[in-house]
Amino acid sequence: MSLSSSLDLTIVGAKEPKPDGGACFPSWVVARLNNHAAILELPQDGTIGRLLEKRELIVQSLTNTATIPQSDLEDFSRSLGGVLINGAIGPLYGEGRTGGIRINLLINDCDLQLIPWEYMCGPGDMPIPDVERSIARIVPCRSIPVKNQGRETLRVLLAVSREPNDGNVPIDEMRAVLERKFKLRMPRNKVELVVCSASNRQDFSNAVTEADDNWDVIHFLGHGEVQTGSSQSIGMLRLADDTGTVEHMSSMQFATMVAAAKTRLVVLTACNSGEAAVAAPFSNIAFTTVSMGVPAAVANQMAVPADTVAEFCGGVYDSLLQNGDIDLAVSSGRQRSFTTLARGDVDNAAVEWGIPILYRAPGAEILFPEFAA
Amino acid sequence: MAYIHRFIPSDNANSGHGMNQSSDRMRVGVWDLEVNAGFLLEILNELNDCQSEFRFEMIDGSVPRSITFGGESTLDWARKRLGPKVVGKEESLRKNIVAGNVYVLGQEAIKDFGLDLVVLFTKWMIADVHDEKVIWNYFSVSERKCVIVSAADVREFAQKANRRFEVALASMMISQLVVELHPDKVGFYRECRGCMLDFNETRVTLVDTFDRLEFEPERLETIPEPTRSAAEKMTSVLRETPRP
Asked: Do the Cβ atoms of B105 and A344 come within 8 Å?
């Protein structure tokens, strides 16, 4: 399995407000595949607004306050493709799609970043996850070459904190539950998983820095939030101990720690950890983490249960160990997420597979060269 | 040791996933739906060791959040059945999960693993339809070999009774299991006597049940053998589990 073509899609939003005072919607998509390029004007007919409304419906379906029939989700997947893979870009996509395609999205507009492009499918594609079609959000930063460190296994640190709703669950119990859930789903003998409690910044810092060897993956599982100050919004991770004492770790503090630990992949399973807001650069923890030098970060656009996250991660690590390619691995994780989800309510579409977002430095797709075929 | 099954939905009923099904024991799958009972497995191991009627096995699976979430959807469900009678009860109803949705999961697990029974723990209270009547705020319900146990308030009640959370959960599981296996002979009693078959309408009386952890002899007599002996042994193990 490989992704032999890269389709770079740069989406540039118009910054001038509309004459009627409405929201600013972006205007152009610039596409590049090998030595072909194309440009496309985005629709100005309210399509973008409708896609944002659909995103809100997906959020509501996760809390069971709205229902999304499978057919609606499929229409949404096609609509997303209809916006970006359109006009002169369509043939470029078609050309790249034959051998597996990685779509690299570079977006400068907050509204457009909020759209869950991860659900997108192109013309003729099935609106379900496909390992031969990856989507990565490219972070404009200096890409540090990833070195082959001769690894044979993955060293994964899972740092566990609590969501506010689970405030009465002792942290040791939470850790035990998550350790069981994740170990059950990891590739056998290939992932060294260490689970620690992150009740405060010191706990987290100790876990990240005190290991004898670097962590290949640092996974934070807990709660994130965006705090709005007078001048900017800052992404925060919430750390709580059994006494109810809460500490916050800013995106900058988190990113500095994990970047210094030379980890190659950060996984953030925290509400709002992937919430997009380019205008407030530090409000997006995953974005900040990559900006600070970690080659790739996977975050959630919305909250999902731990079992679903564990299935996704199992798929990601399994794939990484086979090919070292993070784009392919995240697509594999989506597929695992999709195929392992219990059916249950047949009226409601399974939306979980599109929720993780991959943020990546340019050119950092081969995250573990030692596992590349 | 209690097995842990990773639940992946399958269209092959009774596939059993290659598990040994030769045991004479009744196989009971136990599924923790976001309750995060960290040490439940230890308690299940002890329950397996003390009797030979049931074999408890844990199930761990990925479930759409919409199924394991109460809130507005429960309110909608209640509105469709109660109409204007829900007015004033909205807050209470939102704290419930609809049993019918959870039963679907349980039935899938029973088929996929070839289980005899399944127990699902939820952090929400339980809403259901019983004898054509809408009920809610329940601690446990069951139908067609599928038991749902609510962990809502149970941590707090267990703490007040000075019992471990997992012990409290397991005691609720045993009570509802016994009722599900013998619905014509065993039931819950409105009068609360600190017995594991108390109905606990006011909820807080569950503290007394957790504290005593026993079947009142008169009610115990209603449970047919061999379930009775097994239930007694398991209750005894729970009672003797050191208090926190």
From this structure: yes
